[in-house]
Amino acid sequence: MTKIQLSILFLLISSYLYAHEGMWVPTLLDKYNIEEMQQMGFKLTTEDIYSINQNSMKDAVVLFGSGCTGEMVSSEGLLFTNHHCGYSYIQSHSTLENDYLTNGFWAMSKDEELSNPGLKVRFLEYMADVTDSVMAGTDGLEESALSEKIADNIQAIENEASDSTKYEAIVKPLFYGNQYFVYVYKVYTDVRLVGAPPSAIGKFGGDTDNWMWPRHTGDFSVFRVYADENNEPADYSPYNVPYQSKSFLPISLKGVEQNDFVMIYGFPGSTEQYLPSEAVELVMNQSDPDRVKIRTEKLNILSKHMEAEPKVRIQYASKYARASNSWKRWQGEIKGLQRMDALAIKESFENEFQNWYGKNDSLKTIYSELLSNFEEQYSELRDYNRAYNYYSEIVSQGTDVLSLVRSFSQIGKSWSSKDEEDRQQYIEKLQEEIQDHFKNYNLETDQEVFIRLINQLKADLDPIYLPEKFHELLESNTDEGLRKKVYQKSKFTNQEKLLALVGNLNDAKIRKLEKDPIMLMYLDLIDYYRSNIASKYNAIQSEIETLQKTYMAGIMEMKQGQTLYPDANLTLRVAYGKVEGYQPLDGVNYKHYTTLKGIVEKDNQDVYDYKVPQRLKDLYQSKDFGDYGKDGEMPVAFTASVHTTGGNSGSPAINANGELIGLNFDRCWEGTMSDIIFDPDQCRNIMVDVRYVLFLIDKFAGAGYLLDEMQIR
Ligand code: ARG
Ligand code: GLU
Q1: 84 C-alpha to center of ligand 1: Å?
Q2: Which has the closest alpha carbon to 695: 618, 632, 616, 640?
Q3: The sheet that has 652-654: what strands, in order across it?
């Protein structure tokens, strides 16, 4: 082969390898990206995606709350995001009489919209590479002097960019600190709930269908952003007016076909694409399995109690959903990494890396010990990592009672630092917290989780990772003893007693709380953890971070001329791919879309996750799909080969013409290892079809007036 043929072959191979993978920084989209996008059908330019000179698509995409994406769909501040992103706000307005979670909510005019204190929507003004300013004056500095200088520089950049608090500015590292970007946001704080479908639609399939395809969830909710009379951010006021964003997305009713171009524009939270093999090994053979094991125990107990008692089901629905979401994702991740033979992929990449630096003496001096250093650090991390995961899953967040105790663990300090006046307020705050806690608490349920998990802590962790007293406690008590003498004796499992103590709090009462059996156990564990595990764990992790920064620099140099994307870090990214199904198993072929027919097929009035509302069934029977259906079908969801992750929830799915065609809300289970390695064959993101969203607003909810302000094509 000639040199040219060879390089064409190489190009073909590398573009195949990279097909659809990546979450790209919109200001760094290069020729490679835009050519690939255009080859796939994209009709617009990089300037249309991101520009600071003119209004562009980026002005329509927002960070919704603390970890979701939303998009503007009208000139009057109307915003779409997922139902699961709006969930806690919908819940906060729900009462027994007005149960919006169950029945849905639709404002029939602007004055029926509901305000949501605390909810923020961030519009990105601009992002910029500030690597040089962050690194200014750091030459020759090492370790703590270096990190202090970097922190000072970052602070100065943020202060300047925020223009005395007009904006929110944040500097974030890319490529493990080989590059830094500043992100400058305008933060709107008057964001009102406009509408949400009933959970039987917005959460259809519940935890059973979560992370799975074929999927039929109408996972959307509608909000409106308000501004002061100058279109500037302002806290809630009845005088505020709908915000006019610089741009909003037109909506297409044309729908999607197999192989259509699709782009996801949003705020992916975190990925780890450049880990060495040891790190991947630890995730798939230790961290994921350990956490799955602990949560399996917990979830089994929760579901047993939830099935037995309707009240418990309501109390624990949201806790169950939260715990089961990652539990299911980790299992998919383990399977996916195994299926791909991820370790072999990483090792062969490491061989390539060694061959690369091996040919050059000056590179050798930088990198020759890197991979063995990784090996050393990860093998040292191993046992601490197990302890870290167990403490995190069991002591900090596993049980209701320990979570409550944790938030009371500083009570002595807080009390003594307050004067008479503040103390009364403090008491009221505690009382409120107690009432909130016990609203969603069931003693039998949590007691069983508690006993099971602390037994597991002792059974699975090497004794050196647990304090002496904890051993003694478990050795001198049967489960019955733990129930009677620890769990039921604790004030933190008895609402009346706890409220009574807190109601006239004084030094003596605080001592009582500090001597509570579960408080003592918690403090003992957490002190031991801090001095014997966390310190060492963090020290090793910080060594690993330094190595990872060097490794990343090496990879970037080795791959010079090829386009790399930085790991996700909850900043605005572009990802693209095409509409396509997949083959998860031998003999199984998944289509790229689902329809209302599938919802009716899944209907089961006896199973909570599959109770289809009668009205939706009626619309299906009468085939009353308006302009939203196609060929007698009502499309519901579709999949594409776009690289997404948590945080991309609510992100707009955009077609070749820059029109909204769907809302991203999940990934398929077989592809959840894409946070570590992307497999174009198996990794699919899941979107709700915007035609289903409009159908629900118009035909199901009768809130069609909202469509008047949208630009529907
Ligand atoms: N798996 C989706 C995402 O991570 C949706 C989660 C909410 N839904 C649920 N059934 N728990 O986050
Ligand atoms: N449901 C996820 C979210 O809340 C998106 C799914 C994923 O992790 O890709 O962001």
Answers
A1: 7
A2: 616
A3: 573-578, 261-266, 652-654, 660-667, 685-689, 635-640, 593-595
The kind and range of the H/E element at 179 are: strand 179-188
Give the mean model confidence (pLDDT) for residues 540-547. 97
Q: Which range has the worst mean pLDDT, 17-31, 348-362, 577-591?
A: 17-31
Query: What pLDDT score does 318 carry?
Result: 83
What pLDDT is recorded for position 143? 84
- What is the overall mean pLDDT for the chain? 95
What residue owns the CA closest to ligand 1's atom 3? 666
Reply yes or no on whether the pLDDT at 12 is more than 70: no
For residue 540, the SS3 value is helix
pTM of the predicted model as reported, rounded to 2 decimal places: 0.93
**What lines the ligand 1 site, CB under 6 Å?**
84, 206-207, 210-211, 321, 325, 646, 649, 666
Q: What's the gap in Å between 609 CA and the centre of ligand 1? A: 14
Which pair of structure tokens corresponds to residue 539?
């020290």
Mean pLDDT of 5-17: 44
Q: Considering the chain, what percentage of its residues have pLDDT values greater than 70?
A: 97
Query: Does residue 19 surpass a pLDDT of 70?
Result: no
Mean pLDDT value of segment 583-596:
97
- 287 among known catalytic residues: no
Choosing from 207, 219, 567, 666, the catalytic residue is 219
Query: By the 8 A CB rule, do 72 and 248 touch?
Result: yes
94 is catalytic: no
Q: How far is the CA of 61 from the centre of ligand 2 (A)?
A: 16
Q: Quick one: pLDDT at residue 713?
A: 95
For the record, the structure tokens of 246 come out as 């610089």
Top pLDDT among 166 and 706 is at 706
Residues 581 and 283: beta-carbon distance below 8 Å: no
Angle at 80 between CA 268 and CA 234, to 5 degrees: 90
Q: Which H or E element spans position 598? A: helix 596-602
Rounded to whole angstroms, the maximal C-alpha distance in the chain is 87
219 is catalytic: yes
Helix (H, G, I), strand (E, B) or coil at 415: helix
Cβ pair 105, 93 in contact under 8 A: yes
d(CA 77, CA 60): 10
Residue 557: φ, ψ to 5°: -70, -40
Pocket perturbation via mutation, ligand 1, pick of 666, 675, 684, 687 by most ligand atoms within 8 A of CB: 666
Token look-up 């997949």 returns 582
Helix (H) or strand (E) holding 493: none
281 Cβ neighbours under 8 A, 6+ residues apart? 343, 378
- Residue of 265, 322, 639, 645 to test ligand 2 pocket, by largest number of atoms within 8 Å of CB: 645
CA distance 442 to 320: 13
Contacts of residue 639, Cβ cutoff 8 Å, sequence gap at least 6: 213, 579, 580, 581, 582, 590, 592, 593, 668, 684, 685, 686, 687
Residue with tokens 């409550």: 404
